Amino acid sequence: MKSKIKVGIALSGGGVRGISHLGVLRALNEVGIVPAKISGTSAGAIVGAMYCQGYQPEEILRIIVETNYFKFMRPAISWNGILKMESIGSLYKTYLPHNDFAQLKTPLAVATTDIQKGKVVYFDEGELIKPIMASSSIPGMFEPIKIDNKFLVDGGVLNNLPVEPLEGICDYVIGVNCNHLPEESNISNMKKLIERAVIMSMNYNVYSRKAKCDFFIEAPGLGKYGVFDIKKAPELFQAGYDQTMRVIQENPSLLELAKSSAKQLSV
Hints:
NTE family protein, Cytosolic phospholipase A2 catalytic domain, eight-stranded mixed sheet, Acyl_Trfase/lysoPLipase, hydrolase activity, lipid metabolism
């Protein structure tokens, strides 16, 4: 009997835009593509952890919409950030009670950035919740998370599409970016200018790894959504689902991959 084809999925960061990853996962699951491992940065790490725990994409969407994420944040009395990420740990503990990478139903890798050494640090074993919080600690907004004497911040600073933890483990890698930036003819204020520049930097980081992916999924125009625009959650979910279905239809090799995976699962 042939060994099962292993598909890895790398999920980018992008704030609330990461909800589109749930639509991507739903579409892939519907055609029979189930990941052997997921890697994620920031929002991609959060979505990845919940999915790897065994929650269905629609269930995760409901949890995100119904949970008042911001009520768990507390002001930080320091020069390192205006909010504390640590207080959100209790929220994650509700849905990831074991707090252990090894207890996840699907293997997961989380990307963070060591702000002192300027290096990417990956986690795929041991304590789960702190690495997730570190991976989504936006510099300047949240205090860094300290793990093993390292001060860690958002993984997207250096790697917003962490394909590296999947290399040599998975036969195929699907990269998913949730920050496609539409053209903008009227940048009317400094806020829009800064936001656009940040997303451009994030996407350069992503596109430099695009060649490492066998398939790349990027719903168009998601960069227009705000990082905290939770009211757009259903719209974002649908955008990820629709784009994935288009990619599947346009790539016969991806459909063949789904068929091969299904055949091997039935053996």
